[in-house]
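Example record

Each entry pairs one chain with its bound ligand, adenosine-5'-diphosphate.
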Amino acid sequence: MARIFCVANQKGGVGKTTTTVNLAAGLAKVGQRVLMVDLDPQGNATMGSGVDKRQLQLTVYDVLLESATVAEARVRSPRLVEAGCGYDVLGANRELAGAEVELVDQERREKRLREALATVAGEYDFILVDCPPALSLLTLNGLCAAHGVIVPMQCEYFALEGLTDLVNTIKQVHANLNKDLQIIGLLRVMFDPRITLQQQVSDQLKAHFAEKVFDTVIPRNVRLAEAPSYGLPGVVFDASARGSLAFVEFAREMVARVQKMPG
Ligand code: ADP
Ligand code: MG
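Structure tokens for the complex follow.
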């Protein structure tokens, strides 16, 4: 059965989408069966996985509104398959922005994704959900569906402060909606060890969160930033780039962590 992880942080531009697509590609590369769910109406994770969001017949929007199943809506980019990093994509585009409003007076509105993913969980080892930069109903659907949350963060001065809201939301979801939910880990991304402040914040993170901080550190690496404009994860675009190697290493760390998780 698939382990389901949300990549969440209510801040924009912290590396959620980069983490989701590169972890998906990295996991596929080490032999895991992966479904990537794009929960952000910007559709960056969809495009970054080699899938044109404008061409999609069915998206996660249709799944949330229960007019399509995951099996009907998922797609897979042949370019990623050719590269040996193929994974399924439940894509998103602008239409998803309307879901928030359309779901608001519907029943089980925060459990739609959870129920939909349960129908395909047996077909995957990992399901990764890229969340939008807000603690919205869409993110709530992701948190309700997940076993764990991966929190990418830059080691900046305000990094710890920004975590409080997310940690509180996760606690509430854990208490009221999804008792399986836990923060699986904090991932240091866009890291530059030459910057003393980043090193200090990294040390603080480890002091506060101990083993919740992943061992793998994702460096700042321009190849990871260039890859989306080619419609590819960095791991596929330039497999030997430092950032790509780090994400494959992170995929291995995730596989090892999952083996240690209960159930
Ligand atoms: P989010 O999904 O949280 O908004 P993104 O993953 O889109 O964040 O990243 C924000 C920007 O930072 C993007 O332009 C992305 O290419 C760039 N970026 C992300 N991770 C790295 C990295 N490790 N090195 C260099 N650039 C990165
Ligand atoms: Mg994003």
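The chain is about 45% helix and 15% strand.
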